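Task 17 of the worksheet. Students: predict the tertiary structure of the chain below and write it out as structure tokens. Keep your answer in the requested format; marks are given for formatting as well as content.
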Amino acid sequence: MIGRTLAAGVALSGLVIAAGLAREAMRLDAQAWLRAGIIILVSTPYLRVLQLAAMFARQREWRFAALALTVIALMGLGAALGLR
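Model answer:
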């Protein structure tokens, strides 16, 4: 399930970026499409770690679920600091 999420995120991102490039070739506004594709690509690992946290919680592996949520928090902190 987690591997499929990563593959689907990359594929969707590629399609959205390709659509943006096609719009650029037609001299249409493509910036929003390209930005959306990059956002999808960057958010895919976050979704993957959230799936891991949910999986660990369902299996009552609380330590690993807490670690996965800690990783999400650190990823979010890194992203927030990177935007500055």
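Marker's comment: The CA atoms of residues 52 and 68 lie 7 Å apart. The radius of gyration is 16 Å.
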